Amino acid sequence: MNVRVENNFGSVEVNDEVIKTLAGAATIECYGVVGMASQQIFRDGLAELLGQDNYQKGIVTRVEKNVLHIDLFVVISFGIRVSEIVHEIQKKVKYDLEKTLNIDLGSVNVFVQDVQR
Asked: What is the tens place of the pLDDT at every residue in 58-95?
């Protein structure tokens, strides 16, 4: 799924993989984030921690009425307020994507899959 960005100079289509890569990089930079997680939790209740090349598996993007929505699946570190980490992730991802791609970002949903010490 590509996102179309239009301005005075013309239009550009941004590939879904580019959006996921930028969102993953912004997420990992946030304090308290251990890494990106798989969307599915395994039998033992543990989340798979994804490597840098696989961040896209922990991010879901969808476009509704020309507005981009992003779901992020993360693993966070123990001892820090979950609400603070999630809020920081939402702010950073929204800011980075809107500034870099000049797109209208509707929501950034963060799903905490695991907490690690």
From this structure: 899 988 887 889 999 999 999 999 999 999 999 999 99
d(CA 72, CA 16): 14
3-state secondary structure the chain: CCEEEEECCEEEEECHHHHHHHHHHHHHCCCCEEEEEEEEECCCCCEEECCHHHHHHHEEEEEECCEEEEEEEEEEECCCCHHHHHHHHHHHHHHHHHHHHCCCEEEEEEEEEEEEC
pTM for the whole thing?
Answer: 0.84
Under a CB-based contact definition with an 8 Å cutoff, are residues 35 and 75 in contact? yes
